[in-house]
Amino acid sequence: GRYDRSSWVVDCPNLSVRGGYARDFSRRTPWETPSVFAVFAGYEATRENNLISGRSDHAGLVLDGLCFDAAGRNTYGDKPGEGIRAYAAMDGPIASFNAKNVTIMNCVFANSAHAGVELAGEGSRFENNLVVNMIGIGMLTLRNPVSGGPPITVTGNTFGFAHDVGPPCGTGADQAIGLRVGGPAVVQENVFISCGNAAIALYRDLDRVSIDRNLFYLTPRDVVNSRMPGNTADITEANIDEMEDVGLKSAAGNVVQDPGMSGIPTQWLDAYSRHLLANYVKPPRDAANAVRAAAGLPALAPADLEKEESKGGFAPRLAPADVLALRFAAKQGYHPVELAVETIGRPGPSAVTFRPIDWNAIDTPEPSLANQPVELRAGLGYEQNTSLLADAGPATHMGIRVYRPGSDDGSIYVLARRSTLVNRQFEEAVKYTNGREVESTCLLRGTYRADLVPTSRQKVTLVVEAIVPGPVLPKEPAARPAGRDWFVRAGASGGDGSREKPFRDPFQALDKAEGGDAVHVAGGDYFGKLRSGKWKLLIRNLSLLGGYDAEFTERDPWKHPTRFVLNEEEKAKGTPEGTMLASDENSDGLILDGFVFDGSTYNSYTPEGALDLKRSPQAPMVSLRGGQSAITVRNCVFVNGSGAGISISCPFGVFENNVILNVSGWSLGIRADGPGPWTVRNNTVLFACDPTPRAGTGKSSSDGTLFQLSGRAVVTVDANIFAFADNFGVRSTIPQQNVSLSGNVFAACLYIHLTDAQYLWADASTWERRADADSAFASFEGNTLDLPKLPVDPAFADAALERLFALPSRVATNQWRTFAAQIGSAAIPAIPGSTAATEPPKPAAAPDNSLDSLLASLSSTKDKLKEAETSRTATVTEAPYCPVADWRNALALFLETPSTGPGAHRLKLSVSFATARARSDVQYTSITAQAIDADHASLDTKAVQLEVTQLRSSSTDPSQFPADLTGDDYEAYAITTVGDASRTHVAILVRRDTTASKLLDRAAPTDKFLIRGTARLPRNPGALAIVADTAEAM
User: Which residues contact 132 (CB under 8 A, 6 or more apart)?
Assistant: First the structure.
């Protein structure tokens, strides 16, 4: 099944599914060329209760010539004939259908631990099927509702080996039943073999049940029992003639006799018959020994079953080939037959060109489009029954509300025929409740109809034939304000932020910068304010650019690395917070480009070189958030994170040409709660470690993951390298239809390369069928599992791989050798089954946790491991967790190869600065409360200055803003005092992300300010707004 979920769902009426065809479809012989619906035993997530089931209207379904094997849901002993050891507690029967007139014929159902088949629709038919080797309530359960309709027919089937879960077994419990009848039924010419508690159990409507000409054999308890209140009965093989006294509609011609079984595997029969004779209260000893004798097995006496190891196996597995080899001489029951090759139906649809239309053709009907194929871009709403066309009523067509994207101005209902592909497409699509909410649009393809019924409130509808994903609703980016340039150079002193006199640390520029400004940072190490190792982003639309030379004439982050670090003295004060760069407010419009974030100076390490998690930060190295404009991160290095790499929460953005190396936790986390688009391109993300005992098992939801993606945005993930994850490569919970993955490399992820955390779990062994064939991504092309050569530091690579070799993993030994060679490592995985061990490198006599010492220790470890390779035949003792990766070597992961290939590349970056703005000389006129109250309208557009106090934020009141300004870009402060009290409502409007906004944001009610700016008339004509140019504390 899709994604190996081992689940198939029928959701449309009158569907026929036929199996058993030869590969050229010339013959249909299900017992020679079986179509096996099986269970993938290693599926990683919760699967559905049934292998196959019906949903919605599936009346008239026909299953013909199929084989269902549920053994993969169970755990068995290692040897043939060993019984079942474990099975899931909450699974359901193999097949479950509740619609009318379902027909199941010529099928096989085997090895279920939770019953076989459930039918609950009048007029259904179960014919010439083999149901074998079952645990659970019943092999076939009929749940016919109370109605006057036709009964369910069960004819010509064989039910064999229903196992009770004792001991003691065969006590009459409501389980291990061949056929459970809960309504009107015709049961005839079936074979029931060894059904643990009852071959047939009756629960209601006895007078509407016929049981005729059936064969029973090897029955431990009842052939028929009734559990109907007031009419209970137990019919055994010994009193089968009394069946007619139960009160059935008919009970004639039923017999107890050997069905002439052959083809059953000897080992299986030996295990089963031993269990039967050893565990059932009244085992059919003579019949069991007769069956054993026919198979060449000796008879068993009670003394032969005294030892535990002689008591056989409980419900051992029967392989599909063994089941299909079963034959029965009796005329009753199922028999292999060659079936007719049936091909029916209509030809596939011819190619149709759908003409794009806009909403004008919906508002005003166009006669030329009548009954023509068209395509309309819309946002989907929800289903609602509606009568729009005389030939497409609610019984045959569903109504779907659709919206004009981005507007409250229009919505209509379109129609789609029920039980068609459109229904599934609609169920999987994103839906909205109004046009303003629409982010992801759809293309509705169908027939344009203007011949609506007279009572319709709309003029046009579409009869939709397909719903396909449409383009993202474009969002106009907010205008980026023009700003100035600030310059920073390590070691500078007394600077003013100019190119000639730069600041010494970026925090100084961040404190001064306004929206639209750019901060240019020369290469070097930076320590933050008071050597705190922390930098805060306070404004929007900021550009933070690193990698300049000392004169700011060249920008090359790989030649002039700009590194954020923590001072050793500061670190000695205690475990640092760990987040180097963070958004203190929304960082809309941020451009972060050309920096090295090195967590090694924040972390603590053991003398052996392992990351000491107890004394290291547990937060991401970088944490950014935005809301209205994209965040862009380019050409950066994130290395040695102890809590996580980088976290970004923003509806849209770009993460491009970065390297993330050696992170404890997760490497990259993007939460995209918005329409997008997001682009994640040309990044190299290596070594995400899980600090818990769950490493390698996938049981950690985030730790040990290279890229975590959540939200709902449209996202493009192109040309990245994701390799060496303790658990997951990419873990995306965004709907697949919103995500494109192209040209990426996935390699050496111990558990799963790619998952949607719901159905898709793709590793190397399942990649082709799960990711390539079954996934529903918007685009999935050119992705590979072949790791290119990468210049990873050999000392770090050896130590990191030694640890990975020791973890649970889906990576084979030969694959590890290839991956090691591709990153220049000499590490070799242990040979399975070996016993000798390499002596571990001895720790230093006294700890020295300086970075240089740790790197030297790592190099020493590498040398000692190399010395031991010639004699090593087994695993090395525990390798250090997350040892230091030298940030200088991390820069080498920006490849010199053409930038069109996957991963990060060294690029040529340009240098440019903003044109200096001439300072305007504005003359401001002082105004007073009296002047404002006298004639505030006369002040409109004039440059004024005034003294104010008692400011309070009031940005939520739109009446304070002129028509051309909004609270998105301006903060509003209401005031009542302009020198003296004013009767006129006065508001100060301050552009966000400016020096003035920072000052007023920290104001106390008693603070007094001198405001200079332009007077404007707001939407409230009785008020006055002052759009501030400057604000000064007085």
Answer: 108, 109, 110, 158, 159, 160, 161, 318, 323, 326
